[in-house]
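Model it.
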Amino acid sequence: MLRLLVVLAGAMALVAFDAQAVLAADDTSWPSTGVNFFRYNGAYLSPWKILGTWTLFLLWVRSTDWVSQDAQALKMRWTLWNPIVFFSFFIALLLLWILPWFAVGATLLVIAYAAPLGTYVYMRNQKVTSLYDKVLTYKHTHRWLARKFNSIGINVAGGDIDPRELGPDIKLTVRGSGDERADNVNLLTARNSPGFMPARVLIDDALAQRATHVMLDYKADSVGVRYQVDGLWHDRSAIERAEGDPVLAVFKSLAALKVEDRRSRQSGAFNLEAAKQKMTCNITSQGTSTGERVLLQFDAAKSPFKTLEDLGMRAKTQEQLQALISENGIVIFCSLPAGGLTTSIDVALANTDRFIRNFVEVVDEAKRGHDIENVHVTTYSSAGGETPMTVLPKLVRTYPDVFVLRDVADLDTLTVLCEQAADNHLIVTSTRAKEAVEALLRIMMLKIPPADFAPLVRGVLNVRLIRKLCEACKEAYPPPAEVLKQLGLPAGKIESLYRPPTQPIDPKKPDVVCEACQGIGYFGRTGIFELLLVNETIQQVLTTAPKLENLRAAARKNKHRSLQEEGVLLVARGVTSLQELLRVLKQ
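Modeled.
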């Protein structure tokens, strides 16, 4: 549509030319007639004719594009209707420029616009079955005005609002594949589906339950529904297959996936907006032996975490981490999969002075996350056979102060990073590990010479996510002395520990659950942060005897606080329960 507008915009300037007035101009009469004098100085253009013709032209561009998209969605031979609505107006546009009578040309232009459009509207209104899908009718016009102007009363029963627009305040839109026409067709197809309302209801319920993931397990007669809340899966009521299939069709249409393909692995994304918060919903579907499994994942456009304190990090740990990142050398972040690694790195970088030093990040374009101010991103394409070494040598020659490369997968990349660390640069990287000392060995498994790696490491931050007890319903209980002894807590200082409620909140109403956590007993998550400061003793072990037991012993000698000890502090403060800590430590 934009290209069409640009091409024909120049022609519109010629259309606005009043040929009748020019022909009436006489070069012998201009001295005695002020009117002809001004015509010779450019006053022969009519602003009202320009405005009217240009307005009609813009309406034609918009309606022609709508006809093309609508005809494709309704399967109404768009290859026939496109040339009809286009060429009829275009020919009339040329006649308006050629004919010396503007009134005649303008009349033909209006007819050439209205006749094909009106014919198409009439025929497509005959094809659709729902009154709410018909356009340019009285009801359609009244609904449009009702949405635009609050002064006009809205009558749901009288048909002022499409029933498909009722229900939860959830707005679903296509993600955007670069093809505007295809995106609009997919959106129209989804909105016309009977599953559009149930799809919005499902998402609204999931978000109300604080779910970050939704699992739909399609079987012969039903669809199993599960929500992931605070990292754990919870079963929900199953829905009928007859209702679940249209819902999946809506999700696939919005994500530009093949609706009819129920066997192949497909992945995509669409946008949603709830409570004025914009999110991306990633969808993955895969055929199974019993049907199909679909995973929805909600990613907020903006991270809710701004500071290290928001993550749950203790003040002393914050100071130590910020001191590490302000120096040179190698700083490693680690966690288990889906354990908060990306968020921890993002927040740590966002709370570092990025104005004095030049930060650069190398990332796979398929895994690019939230941009951080003043952290310049350079991407490579692993799908295209590229690696960090594709862009890293060139990036080194720009002399940045800090390199951020979250996934070091080969020796060549690690060697370059160690060379930069030895040249007084900061390297921020990450790996997957259960504990901080294990992360050191994970990096060394790339076969880097210990003598080249050990002297450059400054610290390792390990993070583990743990659920927080619901403040509205958590239950205090006196801890047994043997439990306190096992936890290493003094018996006299800890009067109570906390756990999820074991009794109904209201004895008179045993079925009533906590409104805050919906009876789960936990609300939200926080991080357990284990920060290992690498001193000369640990560096010596890495060089001479790099084994897990030796590193643990060296860390204890350095008065390092383990992940378990950090978690016990959260239990003692009543942030979480002992049962939850044990569950997390077993991961």
